[in-house]
Structure formats: structure tokens, C-alpha cells
Amino acid sequence: MRVTISRFNPERDLEPHFETYDVSVSEGARVLNVLDAVHDTLDASLGYRHCCRGGQCGSCAVRVNGEPALACMHEAKDGDVIEPLNLPRIRDLIVDIAPAIAQMAWLNTGSCLECSHVTADDIEEIKPLRECIECFSCISSCPAVGASSYAGPTAIRQERRLNLDPRDKAERVEEAVSKGLFSCTTCHKCVEVCPKGIETPRKAVEKLRALAVARGLSLPAHKALAALIESTGRSVERKEPTFLERVADVIEPEGEVRATVGFFVGCMFNGRVVQPALDAMEVLKRNGIRVIIPKSQVCCGSPLIRTGFTGFIPELQERNIKAFVDAGVDTVLTMCAGCGSTLKNDYNTPFRVADITEYLAELGFEEPAKVKGSYTYHDPCHLLRGQHISEQPRVLLKSVAEEFVDMAPRCCGAGGGVKSGQPEEAANIGAVRAEMVIETGADYIVTVCPFCEFHLHQVTGLPVKNIASLMLEGYLKKDF
Fold first, then answer.
1. Residue 239 clears pLDDT 70, i.e. is over it
2. How many CB atoms lie within 10 A of CB 317?
3. Could you give the angle at the alpha carbon of 315 between the alpha carbons of 312 and 321, nearest 5°?
4. Domain 2-95 has what CATH class?
5. Is the pTM above the cut of 0.85?
6. Most exposed of 30, 208, 277, 302 (fewest Cβ within 10 Å)?
7. Best CATH choice for the domain 367-479 from the list 3.40.720, 3.40.50, 1.10.8, 3.90.550
8. pLDDT (tens digit, 9 = 90+) per residue, 253-311?
């Protein structure tokens, strides 16, 4: 097979460069086997790390076609491009992991006479956090690392692990805050690239944030948001008639009823950007879907969960579940990525929750007319990784866009309470995403998240459209 490897020798190279190699390897060879073949038969100067060859030591982590992978576990394919992790490079595929290791805390037992015993329950809670093999793939991929004060997922995971250990005597919550605890956007990229699938955002970041809130260490903007939700049931103030005030309890479709669903609007679409939600109702009507809209629904609680204010969550969950159970629906649609992810992952609902793009792609939809212009799609993190939805929005977008230019996913910086609590850091993360958008040459950005809409427009200056609004535009053009 033919592979391309990024090379860099500081003794002779001013800049990294790529070299291509043709090697013979056995069927099912791993990337590490390919690197061995290059080293042993073509170029003995190739530098790379390896040790256990069994996916347990993490030393062989590299990027394969742009994504982190353990070279010993990842099957090699013809045409692979192999690069080092996005960490300071020493030589070729060897990176400097010393700074990342230096950020990691170690067990501090104090006096041995004061040590507590570790219980079986302690062990069970710690277990998911102990599986880290320190490959640092998460740090390589984290959008907040380098754009903020965030020490990275590995460091925060370790803080939570030690925080759970009754033998540890250090102040781990304050330490985590000092390492940028509130700079994580909870995009879950770290989970996606982790060879062990460690759920750092949910099992470490959000848990430590809740402890920080209990100790009065939360950010001022997050405190204000929590107070607003507790007093009004909404995360945005009412400045104009809301979506729920403008629509009927039941919206009947045009023609035959193909399906009946409930609709969870979310705070942003209810009170801040109402038009896309109204457009979505027209799209659902057009496709024969009856929509039942309980007026007693409130904030899903996502902003509270992400920022550590969890005390009010059970009441919100109870009110929302009751609203849709009383409505008698077995499917609830969302059009906000954050709301959908929260209802799916943080609730235990007796009904199905589906994103509007997921549902339309599944049910089938009327093809709209093509709308002029070139469009690219931004994957909201809470849709892509929170709900594992990627292709469905693209199916809808390709049906209506005159020209579609795809773009690799990356967090825009708006999530996890970072935009409200750390706006400069959110802007830094967004600037990287803006460069990617500009490289596409697209006239418009399309997405399925109101927070992404606001932030992407701010960092790019380009118009951002909700996919429902674009589809309605196509339907209206078709009717004209």
C-alpha cells in the first residue's frame, strides 16, 4: 500500500513536509505495522513511538487522515496520511508530552494515619475514569486547548478521579477551576477520539462544575442564568411575543395526516429567534405532520447541567415530561441540538425524542425547489456527538441548496456555557472555525442550533440560516 507520512527533523528541516512510501504489509496490517515496514525497509531515520502493541500504553498515538488513533490498533488503508498529534513536535511522529503530563495531578494522601479506606462504591465510580492510557489524543483534538486557559480533558479527568478517592487530601475542585474547568465547551470531541471512550465531559467536567457551584466558585454569568431559569422557567428574557404565545396548541397539516408529534421548542427558539421555529411548523405542515405543542413546557435544563447548577433539574424534567405525556404523544421533535441532546441523554422519557432533521429524513419529505447560492453545513456538537446525527441534515440541505460545500466538523466555541461565561475564549475557538468556513467559499452557513447560529455569524460575518428556514424558502419558491 501507499502511505504519506509527515516528516520533520529539526536538525535539517525548517518546516515539516510530507513523504510518500510504497510498502508491502500483511492483510489486516495496523498503522504501526506500516510504520515498521517503512522504518525497516525504506527509511531507518523515521521516528515514532511504540511499546505494548496492544492498545494499553498509549505511546503510539498519531493522527491518521486527520483524526487521532492508536497506531497499533488502527487498521491501515491504502492512501492513509499519517501525522503526529497536535502537540509540540520533537521529530517526525514523536511529540513532546511532558507539558501535558506536568498538568496532571497525583494522589496526595497527606499523613498515612489520616487515609480513608476505598469502598466498593468508590471503586465503581472511579473505574470509568481510571481507564485513561495517557495517549493524549483528547488534548490533541480539544478545541479549547490552546484557545483558552484549559489544561485539557486528561488533566480534568484526573482531578475528578482524585476528587472521588477518599484517600486524597488535596483541594481538587479549586485546582480544577484553576486549570480552566469552565473553559470546556462539552463538545465531546475528547470522547469521540478516546480509545477507551472515557466520558470526560459528563463524568468529570460537569461533576466538578456542580461541586464548584456548591462552593460558590461558579462564573457570574452562569449564576445569573440559573436565577433566571429558576424564576421564569426560561433561560432568555421575554422581549417580544414568544413562539408558544403565537401558535395554536395543535397545528394541523396540509392534506393527509401522515404522523402526529409533539414539539419541544427550547428557550432560544421560543423567545430569542422565533422565526426559525415558525418556519419549522410550516415545513412540518407541508409534509403532513400534525404538531401538538404543550404550552406548559419549560427550559430543558441544558444550560444548568452544563454549568453545574443541577439542583433545579428534577423539577424541570418532571414538568416537561408531564407536559408531553398529558399531550398523548409518543414522539417529541426538537430543533435545538442542545435541547435534543439533553432530552435524549439526561432525561428518562416515556416517549421517543427525535431531531427534526432525523425525523424528516426517516419519514420522507417533499423535495423543495433549489435555492440560489452556495451553502456549507456546521455540525452542532450536541447534534453530531450528543445525538449521533450527521447525514440527515446533509440530506435535507442537499435537497434544497443550489450548491453544497461540505466541511469537516469542529466546535464553534458556543457551547458548555463558554460563550456566556468566557466570551473571549469562545471567540478564540470560533476564530478557528471561521477560517474553516471561509475556506469553503460558501455564501451561507446552515446549522441546527441557535447558539451556533449566533456565534458563527459573529465570528464569520456570514449569514447563517436554520435548515428549516431554508427548506421553507425552497417550498415557497416551488409554489411561486
1. yes
2. 19
3. 135
4. alpha beta
5. yes
6. 30
7. 3.40.50
8. 988 999 999 999 999 999 999 999 999 999 999 999 999 999 999 999 999 999 999 99
Flag whether pLDDT at 166 surpasses 90: no
Residue 92's CB: how many other CB atoms inside 10 A? 25
The answer to whether residues 64 and 82 touch, using CB atoms and an 8 Å cutoff, is yes
CA dihedral sign, ordered 414, 415, 417, 422: negative
Pairing outcome for strands 444-447 and 371-377: parallel
Question: For every residue of 228-252, which 3-state class applies, written as one string?
Answer: HHHHHCCCCCCCCCCHHHHCCCEEC
The CATH topology of domain 101-214 is Fumarate Reductase Iron-sulfur Protein; Chain B, domain 2 (1.10.1060)
Contact 153, 411 (CB under 8 A): no
Average pLDDT over residues 410-429: 96
C-beta pairs of 431-439 under 8 Å, 24+ apart in sequence: 431/147, 431/459, 432/143, 432/147, 433/378, 433/459, 434/459, 434/460, 436/407, 436/408, 436/410, 437/376, 437/378, 437/407, 437/462
Alpha helices for 132-242 (secondary structure H): 137-141, 153-164, 172-178, 189-193, 200, 206-214, 220-232
CA angle at residue 436 from 435 to 441, to 5 degrees?
95
The three grid cell numbers given for residue 347, joined into one nine-digit string:
432525561
Considering the domain 243-362 in this protein, what is its CATH number? Answer: 3.40.50.1860
Give backbone dihedrals phi and psi of 90, rounded to 5 degrees, phi first: -95, -50
* Alpha-carbon separation of residue 103 from 85, 178, 294, 326 (angstroms): 18, 11, 48, 50
